[in-house]
TrEMBL record, chain A:
One of its GO terms (molecular function) is ATP hydrolysis activity. GO terms for cellular component: membrane. Coiled coil: none annotated. This is Phosphonate ABC transporter ATP-binding protein. The lineage of its organism: Bacteria, Bacillati, Bacillota, Bacilli, Bacillales. Keywords: ATP-binding, Cell membrane, Membrane, Nucleotide-binding, Phosphonate transport, Translocase, Transport.
TrEMBL record, chain B:
This is Phosphonate ABC transporter, permease protein PhnE. Keywords: Cell membrane, Membrane, Transmembrane, Transmembrane helix, Transport. It comes from Neobacillus rhizophilus. The gene is phnE. Its main location: membrane. The chain crosses the membrane at residues 12-30, 74-95, 136-156, 235-256.
Length: 254, 261
């Protein structure tokens, strides 16, 4: 049974341009799937349709046996607790400490008042420290996030997603702002999430080689359409050209 | 290329300077303000001020009464500012692009801010005077309304600066609006917001004197009363008290600013 099922998904921000066209996709529990494609292909938009950070116009998304499009506000909030999200720019609250930022991931399970007062249970706090330790940044727990390096901030972002106890983690270019060393650490951690915790990962990536190294399956997106879908080893030079093709040609001409 | 730009720049400043000189002459011509005549009266006026506004034994006896109204004025300014800050917090949230609820409330907040900010506090005093009469509520409201406009605008900009990123992240975890506001937006702009509130308290203590003269409350009323009864020594003392109070408040708020920033 698929964890995520996308049928005929279509999205446009303005009436004159369709950003996503007829996307069909199934993702099974425990899979590590990468989406690659040139910038502007619609990768970020697609990821945000899944947890309705962006409202889609056509088609149907089923997550965890629920019809995502038909959820009301309360149900949507409930569903979002099951989907963690990791961002290119980490999207932490820079003036707050690492541990506070991690615990933000619990808001979805709390009433507004509990959240405002910062009431966390002992188990939640313990879990937060466990996760920090697992990601190797426990000694920074009480530092402000703006004092951390990019790679460390991204690990805080991953902790915040994991403390949600999600079934799926969406990562939007998690390593695009990082140096090669930190990138490898982050990708290894993301891979460990699927292999050790069994959490499904859907990752937007810029780098084809990284996608090939880590993914069970790769999806190539170009101008809002899926132009490739298959295992890493099935991705040939020719297909890479097809995914990035139009863009590189344009670049050469320009 | 670079040299050309520099030369163009120099020409621009020369033209700008010329325009200012012409405007100055023209406006002094149409208002019939004679700069030199004005300048000549300065020594004379200074002499008058020194001899008439000096503080005497007689005026010192009025000090307790003056202090009482001064303290009253300071507290009114603080109360008007903090209440305005509470209102502005919500208007700022509705108006800022980071935290806006819907576009109707956003336009509404911006409209309120713009109206109350663009009418000077003296004009507000006069407008409110018509409906509320000469009492302390009028003075309070005048300061309050002007402050709401200014703080809403300032808060809105601070919140805009926080940006969408952490708000987006918390929305994706399933957090509610007020959880996001209290844990992602406010912590990020709190130092700036406190700094603006302190600034407005300073400003309001200064304007409270003027507002008091118009609405018959606080230190402004005391000033006005002595002024109209020609008790210039007392006027001098009141002025001195106001100056000292403003300097003190300045020092205190600068200290607080240093601590929070
Ligand atoms: N909020 C938005 N409003 C209008 N157009 C948008 C918005 N977000 C993205 N787009 C457009 O959608 C297209 C795809 O963007 P995006 O999903 O960010 O692509 P990618 O992540 O693959 O680079 C781009 O052409 C972009 O200009
Ligand atoms: Mg993107």
């Amino acid at each position: 049974m698929a964890l995520l099922k996308v049928e005929g998904l279509g999205k446009s921000y303005t009436s004159d341009k369709k950003i996503l066209k007829n996307i069909n996709l199934e993702i099974n529990p425990g899979e590590f799937v990468s989406i690659i494609g040139p910038s502007g292909a619609g990768k970020s938009t697609f990821l945000r349709c899944i947890n309705r950070m962006v409202e889609f116009n056509e088609g149907k998304i089923t997550f965890n046996q629920q019809d995502v499009g038909s959820l009301n506000k309360r149900e949507l909030r409930r569903m979002r607790t099951n989907i963690g999200m990791v961002f290119q720019h980490y999207n932490l609250v820079p003036r707050l400490t690492v541990i506070e930022n991690v615990l933000h991931g619990r808001f979805g399970y709390k009433t507004t008042m509990q959240g405002i007062l910062g009431r966390y249970t002992e188990e939640e706090k313990e879990r937060a420290f466990e996760l920090l330790e697992k990601l190797g940044i426990q000694e920074h727990a009480y530092k402000r996030c703006d004092q951390l390096s990019g790679g460390q901030q991204q690990r805080v972002g991953i902790c915040r997603a994991l403390i949600q106890e999600p079934k799926l983690v969406l990562c939007d270019e998690p390593i695009a702002s990082l140096d090669p060393n930190s990138s490898k650490i982050i990708m290894d951690h993301l891979k460990a999430i699927t292999t050790e915790l069994g959490i499904t990962c859907l990752v937007n990536l810029h780098q084809v080689d990284v996608a090939q190294n880590y993914s069970d399956r790769i999806i190539g997106l170009n101008q809002g359409e899926i132009v490739f879908e298959g295992a890493s080893h099935q991705l040939s030079e020719e297909q890479i050209h097809k995914i990035y093709g139009t863009k590189t040609k344009e670049l050469i001409i320009a | 290329m670079n040299e050309k730009a520099m030369r163009k720049n120099r020409w621009q400043s020369v033209i700008f300077l010329l325009i200012i000189i012409v405007l100055t002459y023209w406006s002094s011509f149409i208002t019939q303000f004679n700069f030199w005549d004005g300048l000549v009266t300065i020594p004379e006026a200074t002499g008058w001020m020194l001899s008439n506004l000096s503080i005497t034994q007689d005026s010192l006896e009025r000090l307790p009464k003056i202090m009482e109204t001064l303290v009253e004025t300071i507290f009114m300014s603080i109360a008007a500012t903090t209440l305005a800050a509470a209102v502005s917090l919500f208007l700022g949230l509705f108006g800022s692009n980071t935290t806006k609820v819907n576009s109707f409330l956003s336009v509404f907040a911006r409209f309120v801010a713009s109206v109350s900010r663009n009418i000077p506090v003296v004009a507000w005093s006069l407008i409110l005077l018509i409906s509320f009469g000469q009492n302390s509520v009028t003075g309070f409201l005048a300061l309050f309304v002007g402050t709401v406009g200014f703080l809403t605008r300032a808060f809105m900009e601070s919140m805009d600066e926080v940006g969408q990123s952490s708000v987006e992240a918390l929305t994706a975890t399933g957090a509610t609006y007020f959880q996001i506001v209290s844990k992602a937006v406010i912590p990020q702009c709190l130092p700036q917001m406190l700094s603006w509130i302190l600034f407005m308290i300073e400003t309001n203590i200064r304007s409270a004197t003027l507002v008091g003269i118009l609405t018959g409350t606080g230190i402004g009323y005391t000033f006005d009363m002595y002024y109209k009864t020609l008790n210039y020594n007392a006027v001098g003392l009141v002025t001195l008290c106001i100056v000292i109070a403003v300097i003190l408040v300045d020092l205190i708020s600068n200290y607080i600013r240093k601590v929070i920033l």
